[in-house]
């Protein structure tokens, strides 16, 4: 069993740094951004949405914990909520915990909690080079609803 608990302010500071690093890497790999532009875009992406940190309205920031190691946070789940729909803005299992089934367990617990919150639908985006994430989501009941495309005009 996996536990999802609310992130605290100190954890948010650490998560913000992780998000900026990971998302800037994604922007470089998948959108061809140069390093500094990717970093600026990543900072803007988190700071313009999570303006009040862990208490930002319409957002849920959870730490993922494994009950046998309750002091260890094994991952992060960030949801944006609009009406009866949720969007997985970020889902991250720390590298030492990957490949052990915790991602699927976290998604199951997320779906259980979202049903309690009267959320009817949950969506997400997967980077095109992230085959393991795509497989995880499909294994857990998600299906492809479209393809995001972009073109850099600068």
What does this structure look like?
The protein is of the alpha+beta class and 154 residues long. It has four helices and five strands, in the order E-H-H-E-E-E-H-E-H. A five-stranded mixed β-sheet has the order 1-2-3-4-5. Helix 1 (9-31) crosses helix 2. The mean pLDDT is 94. Pfam families: Acetyltransf_1. It comes from Enterobacter agglomerans. This is GNAT family N-acetyltransferase.
Topology of helices and strands:
Elements: E1 3-6, H1 9-31, H2 35-47, E2 59-65, E3 73-82, E4 85-93, H3 102-116, E5 121-124, H4 131-139
Helix pairs in contact: 1-2
GO molecular function, one term: acyltransferase activity, transferring groups other than amino-acyl groups
Protein name: GNAT family N-acetyltransferase
Domain N-acetyltransferase: 2-154
If you average the pLDDT, what whole number results? 94
The number of distinct structural domains comes to: 1
Q: Uncertain segments of ≥5 residues (pLDDT<50)? A: none
CATH architecture: 3-Layer(aba) Sandwich
Report the span from N to C terminus.
47 Å
Number of helices: 4
Tell how many strands the DSSP assignment holds. 5
Approximately how much helix is present in the residues?
A: 25-40%
Strand content: 15-25%
Strands in their spatial order, largest beta sheet? 1-2-3-4-5
CATH class: Alpha Beta
Structural class, please? alpha+beta
Instruction: Indicate the overall shape.
Output: globular
Secondary-structure element pattern, one letter each: EHHEEEHEH
Here the CATH topology equals Aminopeptidase
What is the radius of gyration? 16 Å
Outline the biggest β-sheet. Answer: 5 strands, mixed
> What is the H level of CATH, i.e. the homologous superfamily?
Gcn5-related N-acetyltransferase (GNAT)
